[in-house]
Write a structure and sequence with these properties.
The complex is a heterodimer of chains A (190) and B (110).
Chain A: H1 4-17, E1 22-30, E2 35-42, H2 49-54, H3 73-83, E3 87-93, E4 97-105, H4 117-127, E5 132-139, E6 142-147, H5 148-155, H6 163-182
Chain B: H1 3-10, E1 13-16, E2 26-29, H2 33-39, E3 44-48, H3 53-62, E4 64-69, H4 77-85, E5 89-92, H5 97-106
Parallel strand pairs in B: 2-3, 3-4, 4-5
Antiparallel strand pairs in B: 1-5
Helix pairs in contact in B: 2-3, 3-4
The chains are: A alpha+beta (190), B alpha/beta (110).
The complex binds adenosine-5'-triphosphate (ATP) and magnesium ion.
The site of magnesium ion has 4 residues of chain A, from helix 1.
């Protein structure tokens, strides 16, 4: 993974694959304390204790082994977070869901760049727009929330996966991202 | 060129022996795993300073036959065990990635 945004997409896709219908992504970036933290919570199929201990092994996957016998998402995340001086935590319960939390130390010379966070949120929402996504993005003292249920309600639409919705959402998320990082005041999306 | 030929001609220390008769056609020098995964070709000798079990997983996906670890870093045991299982040869050198890439190029892999 080139950047942290790609890690977020990748780990969130695990939740999609685990057949979650509610996925919450919390992103907390502290430019002052120089850390970047994200947590992804889902209500998918979860994993038992034995599996939880093995998931950071890159040769462990439940994907079709004929296609690929490695599972890199969590292993690469852990290696990259730890290389920056941070960590990854995973808590999971069968039939309940999974929580993955990662912290990167941004003052480490080996910390990957954050990358296109807004773009990552957008593609997750668009690709699996039937799911309920709740994204809480904090930057320093400011934050915005993307809640796909609320967005659908506000816009009076059932689906977010059309070309028109794509450009509306793209512009909307870009604006939220730029506000949270540059302008004063708190803005709530949704 | 075979893995065995590269080992002999460059006089590299072998840490884990894979398929020594595997044919090597390309070289790739990079430490960013996503880049290797997206851009390196099969039948490659991979030159890197990364020493982590994840590089073996990446190598198996790409079809890398041989890995040369540079700058003489310590190598974790679990990485070598996985390399053995996956039949990937791992060698180590004290030289840096540029130096070893030049040597690989000189013996005919470009
Ligand atoms: N949110 C989750 N819910 C349930 N199981 C999960 C979750 N995340 C990961 N897993 C399990 O852990 C395994 C390893 O995950 P990891 O992301 O490392 O690799 P992968 O998804 O299998 O493959 P890749 O990420 O390379 O596409 C998965 O195959 C899956 O069985
Ligand atoms: Mg994955």
């Amino acid at each position: 993974m080139r950047d942290i945004s790609q890690h977020i997409m990748d780990i969130a896709q695990n939740s999609v694959k685990a057949r979650a219908n509610e996925i919450e992504i919390l992103v907390n970036e502290s430019p002052k304390e120089k850390y970047f933290e994200f947590e992804i919570r889902d209500n998918g199929m979860g994993m038992d204790e034995k599996m939880c201990k093995r998931v950071f092994d890159p040769f462990v996957t439940t994907r079709d082994k004929k296609i690929r016998h490695v599972g890199l998402g969590l292993s690469l995340l852990k290696a990259n977070a730890e290389r920056s001086g941070g960590y990854v935590e995973l808590v999971s319960h069968p039939n309940k869901g999974t929580r993955v939390k990662a912290l990167f130390k941004m003052d480490s010379i080996d910390c990957p760049p954050v990358g296109a966070l807004g773009g990552a949120f957008l593609s997750l929402i668009i690709c699996d727009s039937a799911l309920h996504w709740r994204i809480i993005r904090k930057y320093a003292e400011k934050k915005y929330i993307l809640d796909t249920c609320k967005i659908k309600k506000t816009l009076g639409v059932q689906k977010l996966s059309s070309v028109k919705m794509y450009s509306i959402l793209k512009e909307y998320i870009e604006r939220l991202e730029s506000n949270v990082k540059h302008n004063g005041g708190e803005e709530h999306g949704g | 060129m075979k893995v065995r030929d590269i080992l002999e001609r460059l006089k590299l220390a072998v840490l884990s022996e894979g398929d020594l008769d595997a044919e090597v056609k390309n070289g790739y020098t990079c430490d960013l795993l996503s880049e290797v995964m997206g851009k390196a070709q099969a039948d490659t000798v991979w030159i890197t300073v990364q020493t982590h079990v994840n590089i073996i997983a990446v190598a198996t996906v790409v079809g890398i036959r041989m890995i040369i670890l540079c700058n003489g870093h310590e190598v974790p045991e679990d990485m070598l065990n996985k390399a053995k299982k996956e039949q990937i040869t791992v060698a180590r050198t004290g030289k840096n990635p540029f130096e070893i890439s030049c040597e690989i190029c000189k013996i005919g892999i470009r």
